[in-house]
Amino acid sequence: MDRILTAADTDYDRAIELKAFDETKTGVEGLVESGIIQVPQIFIHPQKDLYNYKPTSPNLQLKFPLIDLKNINEDPVRRKEVVEEVREASRTWGFFQVVNHGIPGPVLGQMLDGVRKFYEQDAEERKKWYTRDAGRSVVYNSNFDLYNAPAANWRDTFYCQMAPDPPKPEELPPVCRDITIEYTKQVMRVGSNLFQLLSEALGLKSDHLEEIKCAEGLLLLCHYYPLCPQPELTLGTSQHADSDFLTVLLNDQVGGLQVLYQNCWVDVPPVPGALVVNIGDLLQLVSNDKFISAEHRVLANNVSSRVSVAGFFRSDLTKSTKLYGPIEELLSEDNPAKYRQTTVKEYVTFFNTKGLDGTSALSNFRI
């Protein structure tokens, strides 16, 4: 690509610029490697989307929930306390962090290192994986909604469906192959524990959410946020909620993730060894709004590149035909179903077609 236009240009054709950027097959990291010093116009967000809402009340409690899972399977009293903490966080924030989740620190570190190595390897090697064919076992590109979103995000991603039917090992990138397989095993176990706690927090038997197959599928999304020369003009990820049942997120210590809580953007504080957990749209749907899928975003920065690994617990879109609606046991005359039934494929297809435009996909499924 010879040239990428900036906001100062007048002969700007967005469609042409999007295509030119996509055809480099090196993502945002490729722009940074080329020595770019201005954010191209396709990445510039309206100022209203960049605004950092502050608390309107000085008494607003903004302590981000941190839950210690130590001994929850051995100590019934502690488990009951944790279930209550999970219920409160899922009802009010839609987000919480967990420590003592059981994944060893070295595994977390190696997973983040593996993702970073993928993006920081030679551009020609990265190009081999670049595709917009969602049917591939590993998909690497920049902005899944590049051609639909109002503005592109300063972020590259590669993702793969790791459960229930993982790709063959040789189909995964060599630089992070072994650790991706190991991390998947570990995070599936954590997910099972979390779904049990969430089931109990809804007043259901502990295996209910697993029985309806909320935990059987895992999509790993490995994000890379390169250094941004003008972070005040763009976002790493624009405002959105997640299109799954539950997300288990591994972050590095750079920070930048924010959650919209009581109309205020709140920083998620980096905690060494912690995992960030958030309720997805589909869990809000099946819980009939007992739990909330909170809007969140990631800021761009010019201090350090950022790596994160999001584990999306949701079925394989190509194989699951199961219908999901509000759980019957949670409904009553006073609390009727608020959503129509849908499949994971229908929901995610609608979500992806809509793109990260700052609106909730759930509203399309409300009765």
Which keywords apply here?
Jelly Rolls; globular; eight-stranded mixed β-sheet; alpha+beta; 14 strands
Strand order of the largest sheet: 1-2-10-7-12-5-4-3
Overall pLDDT confidence: 94
The portion of residues forming beta strands comes to 15-25%
**How many domain units?**
1
CATH architecture group name: Sandwich
SSE string: HHHEHEHHEEHHEEEEEEHEEEEH
Q: What fold name stands as the CATH topology?
A: Jelly Rolls
Outline the low-pLDDT stretches: 1-9
How many strands appear in the DSSP assignment?
14
CATH superfamily: B-lactam Antibiotic, Isopenicillin N Synthase, Chain
Determine the N-to-C terminus distance: 47 Å
Global morphology: globular
Report helical residue fraction. 25-40%
* Number of helices, where a helix is a run of at least 4 consecutive DSSP H or I residues: 10
Largest sheet: 8 strands, mixed
CATH class: Mainly Beta
Category from helices, strands and their pairing: alpha+beta
Organism: Handroanthus impetiginosus
Domain Fe2OG dioxygenase: 214-315
Family: Belongs to the iron/ascorbate-dependent oxidoreductase family.
GO molecular function, one term: metal ion binding
